[in-house]
């Protein structure tokens, strides 16, 4: 039996197992003619892409075995779940992970039955599938994930099948350029396989219908060496694919060894639903969009369809592939690699297996000295940048900082003392901090930043994504998919925890006065808290020291998405490092020095979350102390937003007793919030004090103006907070008309000053805590 | 004076006006040496891209004038606001729109002062700028907008400058392929100008640093005829650009007349901050990232910087460009087109000016016959599809249906009886419904669907975007930008209302049981309601007739974003057409036939929004009627979600009195909601009855399973609703233990059935209202 025969046997076996998963409840080896009760009542699955995925698996296995190549496989068409499952079962990994699905007839029956079946497994390449690190539920991210996996994994080849449907998406179209960020010396290699089966759901695909000359130019233009493998005759295609892969791996060696700057890639053109039914009910199926999901739809009730299914399955000659007990025969397994070389068992795709904790320098070293609360000021992200520099130095191969060209703008520039921006394209003499192997990844695509980071994390490394707050919405959908992956993975015993996905959102809504309305949106938090409490965390450190403490905490955590919102502009230093750590550990707390309640029951609670809202709240507290010295004011700052939720809703949630102790059950609470105000209501609506809660936040008012005018436009400014107190503390309303008018006047004066001079009044710009 | 001299004069004038906007408060014509008080205190603006934008404006004007060409201009680098403003002022449009900013010295002073100044205008190409239809706040959408504008505008050329920063984004990378969807006969033409100035914020750009051979291949691979215009000598560049544009417009004629299938495009390579300061403080500035925003930063305080600014501004020889009164001299205006041919005054970019209302066929013709409430069932989107077919027939040039290859999957296939999918690439004999000029736009990129539709709407046409619910999150950020554009535009008197952006979200969370967890996310609604109440509307029609009525309403509306969530699977027909119209007009109402409160005060209110939650609510009401016939149950269905808000928060909001009348102020309300449950809390937390409100909805539980199992996983199923009623109606709890246990058992039985047979029990699948 030749090598190609063995590949073909493996391919036929995988195809047989794929069809079986889509259709069969029982009779897995076709030991008797198919009867209706052997067929699933609801046929769910995607056949169209599956034979192509199986074809690639089969051929890559030969290369792995022959070259002892460390390789993983990303299936862009992740709805082709049957392929990945079949592969894992043939390689024995499925039975290792799920012993009840044994590698025999009984296991095959279970394998078929459980697929896309209630209580069974999902129809896509979900976390449940050994060998997967990419679900492909939402399309577009396979190639970015592949590059993320390859970074800092020299020796690894990431084979990435890109579907031609997926190839129409924006994120995928941009991902081809990831090769400009790959370092042949320090990184692994990505082998893209653009799989043109011609159709997406019901339509032809763009890349399958442009002239091949254009397609080749497109790939060359992206910087690759394309190889076209096209046809539908299995024997010819096996020979061509094997020959092409031999060439491709020689070119990969050249790339790795610096003889060629271009990566090879493969254009694989095969019929959709290859080897499936050619025509059904008089309509062409193989090679058309009708193969996308289930080519024969009435198999249970329609005898003719059922006979076609049986004929189709027998066309793979199962008797040559499995022994009487249902075990794959040696010829089928002839090209399957050993142990951890099996793509379904490769440790990289169960990243927690290879994860090493970060070496984290003591963040306390970078603390801002605070002798007096709110006496001085610092730029929080700048302070963080110094610590991140040391994080990068201490972890030269396991930590990356991603961002859409905003690392300097977000004032993290200290990192460039330790590293460069990753860059593998032309460098000019005037450039700064560009170089292969740089730890900072900057590309003006939030999709690529997110996709690379996900791939990097899921293969057992660490990172931080810094982004303008408004534009992180660009990856809302990617965040959703990643959070769902984490939630599902947590329930799978053999999936090991991976490092959390950490966002640092800076250049936030309150300091986008210069860029204007389009750059003002704090709503990512609302998207995040829709996801399961077990996987999401949100932090709003109000100053530099709390940011340091929060960042250290997040980089140590596992299996979460952590969102940190912190400004880059100077804010008051509120706490010493010791106080900051205590405050962050509690997640929220009273700023004693700003209170006038002397530890007793206050008249009003001023709560705040976020740096600018905290500043305005403190300024309001100072105004109240000056003008209403007898008023008992308590100031509460919230760092960990999830603390506000009931303990029943989130693991960080407070008990009602704690909540009442801090916020009171019956006193007015004026909550100055960084984001959209209703998020605070949503988190607290079951609390005793909720009826007394009044939240200020961003309400979609903004333009190009000054920082304080932005605050005033949205009524989060100090003067308006004082007015809110006056309006809500019952015994005040009558005797404070004069003060209220002063506040109104102060706002008008500030507005007029701004419009005349183009900047905020000096008393606003230079304000610090006066007590 | 040659034509090129006039172009150069115009360019210098535009550059002068751009620098003036960034820096000057006064002394606009430099009639005296610059003093500190002439300089703005905060310098905000983006110089880097501006001279390139001005260069393109200047040259395109010549072409317009010479060819009487209808042309509009999209500035992808939309932060180059000074350029667009300068252009509109030179063309006289600015003064037409804003008479106080006259075309003289006083107007120039105002023009400079107001830019990026509190109380003035934004720093970007915002809606305030005449001639703009694309802000470019968030990058990536210029080319998709351009194609959207070109569709169904034969004769129009949309010149689109794509920044090389923006070109790194996913949406832009995919947008190049829009040419496969353009019809040379029925559509206009897009002229992409890829402007390589080499840097984004602080980094080189990818496309500026790959070999030019690769770049040319990339553009050829995308299907264009690229022309490179590169250099930094103004005279040479003027000659080259003019020559190239002459060639390009000949090629455009060839394209239009069918002699050439490829569109030309231009690669324009010029220094960043071209003609600005070469070096500042010893560091290179022109041609580097340091030109990105404000090249000279200390102009007010630093005499040397101020002298450099003056020298820079005088380098444009303003005395040759403006007369003593500050009016542009005739030589500067020599290439400016007349009237509506001016790009800043072209009616297409103020789309409401050319908007014609849709011809809408009577949706009542398509009504499902309903003799008895909930007696039969229909597939709502399929019913809608038949009406949409007639909408398309009646509006053959002004309506398009967008979707990521899901039009058939979402059961709108009837439209293909009237039209094709737009397609301008290879067609095979097996293809169906592909053709140039098709009204259905299907590409597997939600970004492109959204971008095309935005461009189409903003130029005065109509459309509907149908999408899988979960994946509409892909365009969260684009929705945000569009909603902000609408909100800002509404405040600008000369901006005419445009057609609303209509989403039809189908294949929704409750019917993605087959695709599994990754396809289940109803959170787009949460993103939408963060935007200003004046521009967003959300509808959840529960059946086919209410969907028809809702869709008709949305297609007639202006300046909103309308979100309609409706299923494609069969649901019960609840209302006759007449009832549906009345129900949709009210936005919510009591389903009398399902109630047992006999019009009196109920014991419990069962509220619902969304088709599947409504079905389960009705089934729960039927169970209660059967088992607790004396219980007074009221069933309320909500179509228009915004009705739940207080009237003070949203124009559709109900008064508290109305709310109390419907929902009661003190009885338990069990609200079965389509989306995440807290959205209902957020909308109602100020209502009297809120403390009695208990909301069921999606809580991130799901996998590949059956529809009813999905409902059970999230506790929105009929049995659980009955349990909720038992637990919350005070006098019931004691004497209903038996019924409660029956519900628990029913759930267990349903679950077990599902896991054994792979489908829901027949009594669930076949359920209809039994009374």
From TrEMBL, chains A, B:
NCBIfam families per record: PRK05261.1-2 (NF003617), PRK05261.1-4 (NF003619), PRK05261.1-6 (NF003621)
Record SUPFAM superfamilies: Thiamin diphosphate-binding fold (THDP-binding)
GO biological process: carbohydrate metabolic process
Superkingdom of origin organism: Bacteria
EC main group: lyase
Enzyme Commission (EC) number: 4.1.2.-
Residue ranges constituting the Xylulose 5-phosphate/Fructose 6-phosphate phosphoketolase C-terminal domain according to the UniProt record: 568-769
Single GO MF annotation: aldehyde-lyase activity
Residue ranges of coiled coil: none
Similarity comment: Belongs to the XFP family.
Endpoints of the signal sequence: none
Keywords, in A-Z order: Lyase, Thiamine pyrophosphate
InterPro entries listed in its UniProt record: Phosphoketolase, THDP-binding, Transketo_C/PFOR_II, Xul5P/Fru6P_PKetolase, Xul5P/Fru6P_PKetolase_C, Xul5P/Fru6P_PKetolase_CS, Xul5P/Fru6P_PKetolase_N, Xul5P/Fru6P_PKetolase_ThDP_BS
Xylulose 5-phosphate/Fructose 6-phosphate phosphoketolase N-terminal domain mapped to chain residues: 3-353
Protein name, UniProt field: Probable phosphoketolase
Co-factor requirement: thiamine diphosphate
């Amino acid at each position: 039996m030749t090598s190609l025969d063995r590949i073909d046997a493996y391919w036929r076996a995988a195809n047989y197992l794929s069809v079986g998963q889509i259709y069969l409840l029982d009779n897995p080896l076709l030991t008797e003619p198919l009867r209706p009760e052997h067929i699933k009542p609801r046929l769910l699955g995607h056949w169209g892409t599956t034979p192509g995925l199986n074809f690639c698996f089969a051929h890559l296995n030969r290369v792995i075995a022959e070259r002892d190549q460390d390789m993983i496989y990303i299936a862009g068409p992740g709805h082709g779940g049957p392929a990945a499952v079949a592969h894992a079962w043939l390689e024995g990994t499925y039975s290792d992970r799920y012993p009840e699905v044994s590698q025999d007839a009984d296991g095959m029956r279970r394998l078929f039955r459980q697929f896309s079946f209630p209580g069974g497994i999902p129809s896509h390449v979900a976390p449940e599938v050994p060998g997967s690190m990419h679900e492909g539920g939402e399309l577009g991210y396979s190639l970015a994930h592949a590059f993320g996996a390859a970074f800092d994994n020299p020796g690894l080849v990431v084979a990435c099948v890109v579907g031609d449907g997926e190839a129409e998406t924006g994120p995928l179209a941009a991902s081809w350029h990831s090769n400009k960020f790959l370092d042949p010396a320090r990184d692994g290699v990505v082998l893209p396989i653009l799989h043109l089966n011609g159709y997406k759901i019901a339509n032809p695909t763009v890349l399958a219908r442009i002239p091949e000359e254009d397609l080749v130019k497109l790939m060359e233009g992206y910087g690759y060496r394309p190889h076209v493998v096209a046809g539908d005759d299995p024997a010819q295609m096996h020979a061509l694919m094997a020959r092409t892969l031999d060439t491709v791996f020689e070119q990969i060696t050249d790339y790795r060894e610096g003889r060629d700057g271009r990566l090879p890639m493969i254009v694989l053109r095969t019929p959709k639903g290859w080897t499936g039914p050619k025509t059904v009910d008089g309509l062409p199926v193989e090679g058309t969009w009708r193969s996308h999901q289930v080519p024969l739809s009435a198999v249970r009730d329609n005898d003719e369809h059922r006979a076609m299914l049986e004929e189709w399955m027998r066309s793979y000659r199962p008797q040559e592939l499995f022994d009487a007990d249902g075990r794959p025969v040696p010829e089928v397994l002839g090209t399957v690699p050993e142990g951890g070389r099996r793509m379904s068992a490769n440790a990289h795709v169960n990243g927690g297996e290879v994860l090493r904790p970060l070496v984290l320098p003591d963040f306390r070293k970078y603390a801002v000295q605070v002798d007096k609360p709110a006496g001085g000021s610092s730029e929080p992200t700048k302070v963080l940048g110094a610590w991140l520099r040391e994080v990068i130095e201490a972890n030269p191969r396991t930590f990356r900082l991603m961002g859409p060209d905003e690392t300097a703008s977000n004032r993290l520039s200290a990192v460039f003392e330790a590293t460069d921006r990753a860059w593998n394209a032309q460098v000019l003499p005037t450039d700064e901090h560009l170089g292969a192997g740089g730890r900072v990844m900057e590309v003006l695509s939030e999709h690529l930043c997110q996709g690379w980071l996900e791939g990097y994390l899921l293969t057992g490394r660490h990172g931080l994504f810094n982004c303008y707050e408004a534009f992180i919405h660009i990856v809302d959908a990617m965040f959703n998919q990643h959070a769902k992956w984490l939630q599902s993975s947590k329930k799978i015993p053999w999936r090991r925890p991976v490092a959390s996905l950490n966002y640092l959102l800076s250049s936030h809504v309150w300091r986008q006065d210069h860029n204007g309305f389009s750059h003002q949106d704090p709503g990512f938090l609302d998207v995040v808290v829709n996801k399961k409490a077990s996987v999401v965390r949100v932090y709003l450190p109000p100053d530099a020291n709390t940011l340091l403490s929060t960042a250290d905490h997040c980089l140590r955590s596992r299996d979460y998405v952590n969102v940190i919102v912190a400004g880059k502009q100077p804010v008051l230093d509120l706490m010493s490092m010791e106080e900051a750590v205590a405050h962050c550990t509690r997640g929220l707390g009273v700023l004693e020095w700003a209170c006038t309640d002397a530890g007793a029951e206050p008249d009003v609670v001023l709560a705040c979350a976020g740096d600018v809202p905290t500043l305005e709240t403190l300024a309001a507290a100072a105004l109240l102390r000056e003008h209403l010295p007898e008023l008992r004011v308590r100031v509460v700052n919230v760092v960990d937003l999830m603390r506000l939720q009931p303990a029943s809703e989130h693991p960080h949630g407070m008990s009602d007793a704690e909540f009442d102790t801090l916020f009171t059950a019956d006193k007015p609470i004026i909550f100055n919030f960084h984001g959209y105000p209703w998020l605070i209501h949503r988190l607290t609506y079951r609390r005793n004090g909720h009826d007394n809660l009044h939240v200020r936040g961003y309400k979609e008012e903004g333009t190009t103006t000054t920082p304080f005018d932005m605050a005033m436009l949205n009524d989060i400014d100090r003067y308006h907070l004082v007015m809110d107190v006056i309006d809500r503390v019952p015994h005040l309303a009558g005797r404070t008309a004069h003060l209220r008018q002063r506040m109104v006047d102060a706002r008008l004066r500030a507005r007029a000053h701004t419009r005349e001079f183009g900047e905020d009044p000096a008393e606003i710009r230079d304000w610090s805590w006066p007590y």
